[in-house]
Amino acid sequence: MNIAYQSSSNKPKDIKFHNQKLVLSLFLANDYWSIPQISEEIKLSKTSVAKIISGMEQREQIVSLGKGTSTSEGGKKPELFRLNSEYRYAIVIDIGAEYLVGAITNFSCELIGEPIYKNATEATYEETVQMIYEIVEMLLRTSGAATESICGITLGCDGIVDMDKGIISCSAHKKTWAKNLKIRKDVAEKLKKLDLNCEVYVDNGCRYIGFADLLCTDTRQYQCIATIYTTKEFLGGSIIQKGHLLKSANGFMGEFGHNIIDPKSKVRCECGNYGCLEALVSEKNLIQILNEKRVQYPDSIFNTSDLEADMEHIFAAAMEKDVLAGKILSESAEYFAISIHNMMMTFDPEMVIIQGEYARAGEDFLHEICKRVTQLNVFGLDRIPHISLSKVRNTEDLLKGYAYFSILNYIAEKEPYR
Ligand SMILES: [Zn+2]
Predict the structure, then answer these.
(1) Cα gap 200→152, rounded to integer Å
(2) pLDDT recorded at residue 14
(3) CA of 329 to the centre of ligand 1 (A)
(4) Residue 258 C-alpha to ligand 1 middle, in angstroms?
(5) What is the second-level CATH architecture of the domain 221-391?
(6) Biggest alpha carbon distance in the chain?
(7) pLDDT band at 406 (very low <50, low <70, confident <90, very high)
(8) Residues of the chain with CATH 1.10.10.10
(9) Distance 94 CA to ligand 1 centre (A)
């Protein structure tokens, strides 16, 4: 269970609020719950749980599935409840280099209809804000969701973002955009026309993508999870503690791509430094290494065929035991391992998930990383986080991560319990 809350004080009002949050978060994590199960799970009396459940039913946050049939021992199966998927909706927008992608999900993070794509290759910042407005308007219209049922709007972009202030400090793709753009304020201003009264969240999209893996049940036992999201050119990530992003002073939290792995490296990163993880494991650098080493491996498929040297083919060749491809990926594994080692020494995550392009690099690659992280362990201690390759593959599932972030934030607010 990665969603747990700590009560800030022992006042009865705060304890009640804390318990309500805890029960609602259980429904996000598990389809069906009965009062005895909840009572057992959160160590609260059945009477208190029954009161909370009754309030949640009245607010239409959950629905009853009716009384169960008799058990073989002659007892009554308890009444089961599940989340009311239509209680609230979340709007999500990814501001990519080429497209804006928008979608709306229900309270169970299921997408309603198809995502909307708008070409934004040449868009100025002002045009982008206008397009965000148009996407939100279109999503509301096509889904039929009421404006008061929207629990949050999540905007994900690239570059360095100050999530607390809602400012894009520096966009990575949009080179012509100014620095320190107050996007949350500008978007909220535009959305006033739609009578929307919900939170607008802004962060680097990699942070929200981290939440996509939290929707998989096998992450629930971990309290502190680091995610590394990889594309062919970029690498970012998130640190999620008890279902919430770790606070960041300057918007750098989770920017694992700019961990300097090899300060003497000649590989220059977009950020201006040399030897950053992002630059070392990029497709461009993999091809560079391949071209440098290929003469030593005449039997490699990259020498015996006209197979194009790109990331996808290097991964595929490594899985087919091509020695050259294996060497290249082994170098990447080393870089990831150093970065994970450094994570262990700074915030010590229980789990590290590699998402995006490198999630397709195969089990051998994963084993190589685990082996290297173990070798780097301090004082010969055999303690490493659980490291895995993400199962999330398509855009729709990544967008669910954006929605899950805003839904978790919504249930942490006081508003849903009034
Ligand atoms: Zn860098």
Answers:
(1) 6
(2) 81
(3) 20
(4) 4
(5) 2-Layer Sandwich (3.30)
(6) 76
(7) very high
(8) 12-83
(9) 22
Given a contact cutoff of 8 angstroms between Cβ atoms, the answer to whether 275 and 294 are in contact is no
Looking at 81-85, 247-251, 274-278, 355-359, which range is the least confident one?
A: 247-251
Q: Which residue did the predictor score with more confidence, 268 or 393? A: 268
Q: What is the pLDDT of residue 6?
A: 45
Q: What's 276's DSSP letter?
A: B
The beta-strand segments (E) located in 231-330 are 235-241, 244-245
Tell me how far the alpha carbon of residue 275 lies from the centroid of ligand 1, in angstroms.
7
User: Is the domain 12-83 a CATH 1.10.10.10 member?
Assistant: yes
CA–CA distance, 308 with 120 (Å, rounded to integer): 30
User: Which CATH architecture describes the domain 89-211+396-417?
Assistant: 2-Layer Sandwich (3.30)
- Ligand 1 centroid distance, CA of 272 (Å): 6
CA distance 106 to 173: 30
Say how many Å lie between the CA of residue 180 and the centre of ligand 1.
19
Q: 């009865």: which residue's tokens?
A: 12
Residues whose CB is less than 8 angstroms from the CB of residue 143 and which lie 6 or more positions away in sequence, other chains included = 89, 104, 112, 113
CATH 3.30.420.40 domain extents, the chain: 89-211+396-417, 221-391
DSSP string, 31-87: S-EEHHHHHHHHT--HHHHHHHHHHHHHTTSEEE--PPPBPTTSPBPPPEEEE-TTS
Tens of pLDDT, residues 129-186 = 999 999 999 999 999 999 999 999 999 999 889 999 999 999 988 989 999 999 999 9
Instruction: Decide: pTM greater than 0.85.
Output: yes
Q: Work out the end-to-end distance of the chain between its first and last CA atoms, rounded to an integer number of angstroms.
A: 25
